[in-house]
């Protein structure tokens, strides 16, 4: 198709040639890639022998080139010439060799145009599978367009850092303005501070401005009357560029979860080491990108599933008598159950923040970061609290599941009912089998 069009465009209109070339038959030479091709342009609208311009054609030439005109030529051979076998559109006749060469050229052009494009679409389609139980996205249809996960990672890191600046500024200025925003199901008071709100606003509008077509779920309500423009210069940090390849997914397959201030309770108590800001990117409900940032020590961990990370697992874990890290302000019955399961000697570390507790399982070069082997939570918890940690663990080969071992889907509702257990470089299934009573404990 493109070959025919290219050929048609290459032929100048009648009258643009000199008189010698303005005859009923025009010979054109085309060179491409070292091949010299001979094209013959035929004018069928004028009667034979009365073409525009000078120089009558020889009978041999006419026999080759005037197939459609009724035979009415006294000086010419007595029988009409045979119709040529191969005629291309626009009146171009090609020899069999010319046809073959043009076909090859056309195929070459098509391959060149579409090979890179198809390779890019392949990764796109691979990640286009629908979420379990979610609405089906037909392969290849992307009404919201495509988003590059590497760009999403870059802007997620920036959002966590920029939100963290607000968290730190409010804490250092001692202008928390803490108030109760409600109660948990277990009756614990939930705090809200100016740090939560300002961080939430900054993180949300940075991500929304960069990726308007993507669904963003953030912990705090976004006041549309109080919009902020937080520009993104589209630059990608060097470490991300080196470790991560661009990878496109349909915008509607993505859900971003923002936790603008994890460990708000501890923030109000000035226990700064527990505080993190977090961003998670889920694709079809699966956590794929996780960013956990500590604003008070400027440490950031990021990881992308099947991509890369700037953080790694520790070299060893204690599987037999694991140190269990649990919530200090939403513990439920976790301590009791952990001791029943792993024995009374099991060390239990109480700490604030889901982000902090995931970092406790990793090799984090922070002096204020405790180390643990397993993270267990038995009460209800929200997806923005756990999605980033889940993605980071998954990217590094670890697991975060409900207490019965189910994967947590990061679409739809914002709550996770089944508690959680997180581990890395351990037999996660065996850990779950040891926890027969925890499921009941989570519904105390
Ligand atoms: N039972 C519950 N209900 C609601 N939120 C809970 C919860 N248990 C824990 N969380 C939230 O999960 C995060 C980590 O909890 P914890 O520090 O207790 O481990 C905190 O988030 P925020 O600080 O972002 O509000 C906390 O509020
Ligand atoms: Mg939180």
UniProtKB/TrEMBL annotation:
Can you tell me where the transmembrane regions are? Answer: 97-119
Name the membrane topology term: Single-pass type II membrane protein
Q: List the InterPro entries.
A: CysQ/Inositol_MonoPase, Inositol_monophosphatase-like, Inositol_monophosphatase_CS
Record field: catalytic activity:
adenosine 3',5'-bisphosphate + H2O = AMP + phosphate
Chief localization: Golgi
Which SUPFAM superfamilies does the record associate with it?
A: Carbohydrate phosphatase
Q: In which pathway does it act?
A: Sulfur metabolism
Q: Spell out the molecular function terms from Gene Ontology.
A: 3'(2'),5'-bisphosphate nucleotidase activity; 3'-nucleotidase activity; metal ion binding
- One GO term describing the cellular component: Golgi apparatus
Free-text function comment from the UniProt entry: Exhibits 3'-nucleotidase activity toward adenosine 3',5'-bisphosphate (PAP), namely hydrolyzes adenosine 3',5'-bisphosphate into adenosine 5'-monophosphate (AMP) and a phosphate. May play a role in the formation of skeletal elements derived through endochondral ossification, possibly by clearing adenosine 3',5'-bisphosphate produced by Golgi sulfotransferases during glycosaminoglycan sulfation. Has no activity toward 3'-phosphoadenosine 5'-phosphosulfate (PAPS) or inositol phosphate (IP) substrates including I(1)P, I(1,4)P2, I(1,3,4)P3, I(1,4,5)P3 and I(1,3,4,5)P4.
Name of the molecule in the record: Golgi-resident adenosine 3',5'-bisphosphate 3'-phosphatase
């Amino acid at each position: 198709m493109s070959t025919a069009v290219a050929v048609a465009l290459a032929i100048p209109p009648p009258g643009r040639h000199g008189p010698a070339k303005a005859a009923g038959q025009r010979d054109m030479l085309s060179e491409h890639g070292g091949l010299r091709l001979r094209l013959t342009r035929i004018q069928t609208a004028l009667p034979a022998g009365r073409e525009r311009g000078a120089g009558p054609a020889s009978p041999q030439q006419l026999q080759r080139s005037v197939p459609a005109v009724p035979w009415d030529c006294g000086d010419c051979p007595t029988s009409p010439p045979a119709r040529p076998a191969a005629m291309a559109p626009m009146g171009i006749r090609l020899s069999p060799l010319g046809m073959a060469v043009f076909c090859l050229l056309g195929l070459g052009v098509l391959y060149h145009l579409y090979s890179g494009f198809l390779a890019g679409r392949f990764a796109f389609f691979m990640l286009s599978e629908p979420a379990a139980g979610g609405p089906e996205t037909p392969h290849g249809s992307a009404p919201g367009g495509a988003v590059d996960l590497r760009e999403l990672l870059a802007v997620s890191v920036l959002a966590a850092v920029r939100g963290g600046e607000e968290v730190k500024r409010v804490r250092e200025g001692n202008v928390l303005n803490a108030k109760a925003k409600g109660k948990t199901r277990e009756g614990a008071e939930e705090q809200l501070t100016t740090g939560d709100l300002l961080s939430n606003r900054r993180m949300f509008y940075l991500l929304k401005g960069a990726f308007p077509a993507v669904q963003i779920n953030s912990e705090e309500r976004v006041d549309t009357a109080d919009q902020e423009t937080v520009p993104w210069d589209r630059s990608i940090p060097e470490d991300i560029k080196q470790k991560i390849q661009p990878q496109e997914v349909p915008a509607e397959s993505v859900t971003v979860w923002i936790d603008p201030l994890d460990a708000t309770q501890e923030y109000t108590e000035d226990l700064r080491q527990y505080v993190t800001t977090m961003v998670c990117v889920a694709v079809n409900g699966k956590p794929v990108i996780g960013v956990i940032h500590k604003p008070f020590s400027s440490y950031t961990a990021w990881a992308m599933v099947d991509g890369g990370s700037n953080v790694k697992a520790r070299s060893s874990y204690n599987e037999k008598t694991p140190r269990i890290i649990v919530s200090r302000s939403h513990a439920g019955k976790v301590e009791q159950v952990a001791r029943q399961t792993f024995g009374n000697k099991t060390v239990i570390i109480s700490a604030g923040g889901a982000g902090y507790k995931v970092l406790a399982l990793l090799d984090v070069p922070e002096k204020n970061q405790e180390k643990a082997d397993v993270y267990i939570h038995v009460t209800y918890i929200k997806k923005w609290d756990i999605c980033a940690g889940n993605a980071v663990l998954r990217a590094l080969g670890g697991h975060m599941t409900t207490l019965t071992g189910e994967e947590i889907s990061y679409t739809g509702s914002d709550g996770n009912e089944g508690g959680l257990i997180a581990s890395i470089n351990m037999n996660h299934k065996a850990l779950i089998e040891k926890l027969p009573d925890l499921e009941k404990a989570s519904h105390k």
